[in-house]
Amino acid sequence: MINRILSTQLADAIAHSPAVALLGPRQVGKTTLALEIVNANDRHALYLDMESERDRAKLAQPELYLADHLDKLVILDEVHRAPGLFPALRGLIDQSRRAGRRAGLYLLLGSASLDLLKQTGETLAGRIAYLELTPFQVLETQHLPTDVLWVRGGFPESLLAPDNARSLRWRQDFIRTYLERDIPQFGPRIAAETLRRFWGMLAHHQGGLLNTSQLARNLGVDVKTAGSYLDLLVDLLLVRRLPPWHANLGKRLVKSPKVYVRDSGLVHALLGIPDKESLLGHPVVGQSWECFVIENLIAAAQGGGKGDVQAYFYRTSGGAEIDLLLAWPDDRLWAIEIKRSLAPKVERGFYAACADLKPARKFVVYPGQERYRLAEDIEAISLVGLAEEIHD
């Protein structure tokens, strides 16, 4: 069992909130983590899988069934399969509050951010805490080489497969299952092959600026349709739109977000890259590494329970650029440049961007292990080293 960093945060949320929603893609380990938390804390729990006909039948009248289990933590897996459940939960939560039980009532597991938002407009505002479980990150897999996590991605079955061939096969099957079985549950019917081509285009364009018009032309659909495909993959927590930093600096700033497939292993599966040797000779290698680093650092920032840490990139028309900008709740900025070189050099654009924004800390992430100064206020640091610093 690999310990998940989010486990402490999840246990704390269950102890202090009536309902907790744990979101993450399928097969990322939500159910395993939920049951581990229950067992570790000796809680009385009831597990209901909403993909089971038998369990869904129990909730035909949710108020009646759940009212008999107000003394337990009820875990509702794949909660989007039980539409209209939130109004019943709201009433039961309020009933329990009046009886003196104010926390640890419901743990809702969902495979997309939109799962829980389509529940008849009911949001459980003020009654629910939201957490996101990502695939494994570098801080959780330090017993493995970082390059293994980069090549295979962080989904447990892929990362822990006995060899590269079986890891790639799992990811290819995962993509096929998502396209043919899972995605149709979340919206209008989309041809699996069309969406796979779209997903593949994003992988080829990994970390590039979003140009929806170009994607639509390449796919042979209109801009609105291409935008809806992107929204769907973002809502399924499979793709990230990294927003640009906006400030009134008197500069012409890039206003389009960067877009990338969040799990590096899925990028490589979509592009048919089986192993590290093939990846190092592929044109996507630099952008794959950059997005892998960005995703891990965002996860370290947002998984440490430090409040609302926001991630951006910064680019001006004049060439000033920062790959990742972390905005902390106290308004400090950390500027992070990413280089896949054992002898990283800071570009003029990074210096220019730092002169514009005056960040509190400046780092260059590179594949080596040694931490050293590149300039008086710029440090070269490993991915694991910076992720630990951010998390701690």
Write up what this structure looks like.
This protein has 392 residues and is α/β, with parallel strands linked by helices. The protein has two domains: 6-132, P-loop containing nucleotide triphosphate hydrolases (Rossmann fold), CATH 3.40.50.300; 138-391, no CATH class. Helix content is 41%, strand content 17%. It contains 16 helices and 14 strands. The strands form three sheets. It has a six-stranded mixed sheet. Helix 5 (85-98) links the parallel strand 3 (73-77) and strand 4. Helix 6 (146-152) crosses helix 12 (264-270), helix 8 crosses helix 9 (192-204) and helix 10 (212-219) packs across helix 11. The radius of gyration is 22 Å and the shape is globular. The chain starts with 5 loop residues before the first helix and ends with a helix.
**Biggest sheet, strands in spatial order?**
9-10-11-12-14-13
Overall form: globular
Structural class: alpha/beta
Indicate the low-confidence ranges by residue numbers: none
The fraction of residues in strands falls at 15-25%
Rounded to the nearest angstrom, the distance between the terminal CA atoms is: 23 Å
Summarize model confidence as the mean pLDDT. Answer: 89
Order of helices and strands: HEHEHHEHEEHHHHEHHEEHHHEEEHEEEH
Estimated radius of gyration: 22 Å
Give the fraction of residues assigned to helices.
40-55%
Number of helices: 16
* Count of beta strands: 14
Q: Characterize the largest beta sheet: strand count, sense, and whether it forms a barrel.
A: 6 strands, mixed
Indicate how many domains the architecture comprises: 2
